[in-house]
């Protein structure tokens, strides 16, 4: 895809990955529209919005309907690390609202105009956790698994409309999304974590080359395939780290 002159909307575009992504796309000649709760540093088009409520998502969706969107990058996300039964109802709803419902509804908002123009690109940023569902990240993993499923189904649906759908699954990334406990877990389990620039590079390449699926990290991408074929084998492989995570969470 030629990026010059394309209008690219990035949800969560003021964050660590989003701000770098906006800068890279802008350098390639694209016009960037950042959607976030807070305005990004510097100038540029900005849509203020809150994806944590149904009303907030609908308000952003209406703004996108009035905007020419060539590429929609659903990047905004939240994460919960803890026991599934300890997650509050409010935080559980927030996780699915931001990670799954918002990307679906914002995609629905821009699709009609994309179909009318005969071109568009939806980019959903998922996670390796959406394919290898980790203990103590139950709502996060399942919300990203839902986003993966939505991406695949949508791709099949719009293939004749010349609309591309890309699902990108990073492994752990060094951003403020990770709590102190998550960072401690990463250290205890020797979890590999990428710099935001690594993920940004992969997203840009995926958009330019109109990739369908991108899994970032090795050996994670191979474990994704293994988990799809032999999930009970992966149960055993993850057991040690799961026990470390539980012990960490049980600490006062």
Q: What is the number of domains?
A: 1
CATH architecture: 3-Layer(aba) Sandwich
Percent range for helical residues? 40-55%
Look at the helices and sheets and give the structural class. Answer: alpha/beta
Total number of helices: 8
Tell me what portion of residues adopts beta-strand conformation.
5-15%
What general outline do the C-alpha atoms trace? globular
Strand order of the largest sheet: 3-2-1-4-5-6-7
Mean pLDDT metric: 96
Give unreliable regions as ranges.
none
Order of helices and strands: EHEEHEHEHEHHEHH
CATH fold category name: Rossmann fold
Spell out the CATH superfamily.
NAD(P)-binding Rossmann-like Domain
Count every beta strand, where a strand is a DSSP E run of 2 or more residues: 7
Keywords:
seven-stranded parallel sheet; 252 residues; alpha/beta; globular; Rossmann fold; 8 helices
Description of the structure:
This protein has 252 residues and is an alpha/beta fold. It has one domain: 3-Layer(aba) Sandwich (Rossmann fold). The chain contains eight helices and seven strands; from the N terminus they run βαββαβαβαβααβαα. Strands 3-2-1-4-5-6-7 form a seven-stranded parallel sheet, sandwiched between helices. The radius of gyration is 18 Å and the shape is globular. The termini are far apart. The model has no long low-confidence stretch (mean pLDDT 96).
Topology of helices and strands:
Layout: E1 7-11, H1 16-27, E2 31-36, E3 45-48, H2 54-65, E4 71-74, H3 89-117, E5 120-125, H4 138-158, E6 163-169, H5 180-189, H6 196-208, E7 213-215, H7 220-229, H8 231-250
Parallel strand pairs: 1-2, 1-4, 2-3, 4-5, 5-6, 6-7
